[in-house]
Amino acid sequence: MRIVIIGSVAAGTSVAAKARRNTEEAEIVVYDQGKDISYSVCGIPYQMGGEVESIDSLTPRNAEWFKKRYEVDIFTEHKVTKINHEQKTLEIKDLASGETKEDHYDVLVLATGASPFTPPPFNQNQYDNVFQVRNIQDAQDFAAFSTKQPKKALIIGAGFIGLEMTEQLVHKGLEVTVVQLEDQVMPPMDADMTFRVEEHMREKGVHLILNDTVKSIEGESSIERVTTTNGVTIETDIVILSAGIRPNTELAKEIGVEIGATRAIAVNKKMQTNLPDIYAVGDVAESFSVITGKPIYRPLGSTANKMGRIAGDVITGGNLEHRGVLGTGIFRIFDLHVGQTGLTEKEAKAEGYEVEVLYNIKPDHAEYLGGKELTIKALADKETSRILGAQVIGKGGVDKRIDVLATAITFGAKAEDLFHLDLAYAPPFATTKDPVLYTGMALDNALHRNPLITPEEILRRQENGEKMQIIDTRSKKDHEKSHVKGAVHIGLYDLRSHLENLDKNVPTVTYCNKGTTGNAAQNVLLNHGFNEVYNLSGGNKNYQSYVKMLESKSK
Q1: Is 42 a residue of the active site?
Q2: Verdict on whether the full-model pTM lies above 0.70
Q3: Which of 176, 276, 386, 400 lies 20 to 30 Å from 50, alpha-carbon distance?
Q4: Which residues make Cβ contacts (< 8 Å) with residue 210, sequence separation at least 6?
């Protein structure tokens, strides 16, 4: 059996390695049009910013090493230009010599990856100070240009790469402007969470321009300044394009490989395409959601490695299957860490779920040992109590919590299950009631007796003219400093003596600064026969953040 793999990096090399581990009988050949076969794409921003000192540390394996270790023939700078599936042959161009040759296969694996998208008007000319962040050559080109000591940088796009490059360039001392097409950074997340990221970026001196695009460019060989659709002029010495990627499906389309709804190659759980003996893995292939079962496209190195291993196993007689993804991701922006997993609120509602939404604001570990505030937004399905997704923001402990939540969601955990997890506790690492445990407890309470209400829902009801009693249970001093619109101040300890002044039949909202005291007040009212009592999720702190977000978006 002759296995030919088009593309290497994470997915292609994983196919080859797993196939060879399973059998010594197969011939395994890899063609890659690049110079490097295995490198950390995700590490490139940190090398470009100087946090990773040597670019060699991002390229731990070369073709010679792979040949010795796995007896796999790898041809770099070789581009497959045509596939003849009926005859199972390939046409390959040697990019170094210009010569063309033919090869054949019994099994073909498409690991052609994805290419960065170049948005207009940047696609209308070549500029020596415009860079993308996709491969080792990009990093080398950036390093060469950096000797000119640019002072101002323009970043197009505020996804993972855009935000990582923002951090790195600020650390290098550049003045950074970010232009984002959507009205929020990190569009895959909920806007009320990413607003915290936007505020943090501005605090660090980043010029953030949302809901706008570059309309025109000034400069011949180098871009000197741009003007946006909304009329903002930005001077720059260097431009980073991070406007997303597109799967490289051209070869696949030419031979009739099915392209899925995500615009990536459609595959089954064994990474097989609709054509016999043709597989697709990595950034060129779509995955599916663990929660909904529907196709999704989440091009990450971790997923690419899994897909490659699965295909390599299946091709050589194994029975591995892809189990889907949650879209789990994490990034750092300065000293803020941001993670997400599963469905966002907007995605869950679009899928038809009626969700309970919790904002849990707690320290990541004991405050007397330097614990910092951690904000978790978690969703549960009201019908089944199943956890559907979570987003976590803080200065520490985010990776631990998002991984625990991702694991729980993968195995179908309900809200109550989170509370019963036996998680590691010691003051330097967690609180006695870990934020994940508290998330489960609070969501379970909300689903059965103590309903929550979000800032969005309060404002919507008020705009509709609905009558509500809103009770601020904090100190009078805190109430005077800031409070929910329409709220009256009744401290928790005075609440029982003021019951006669409240209407048990009117929908009532209790709140404190973050949620705990508001919950205690909610219990008091419920125990005294109030019919409909909500606790404001995330308290006044979350409410004020949401109002501030609305004000900033309306400007």
Answers
A1: yes
A2: yes
A3: 400
A4: 180, 182, 183, 184, 185, 198
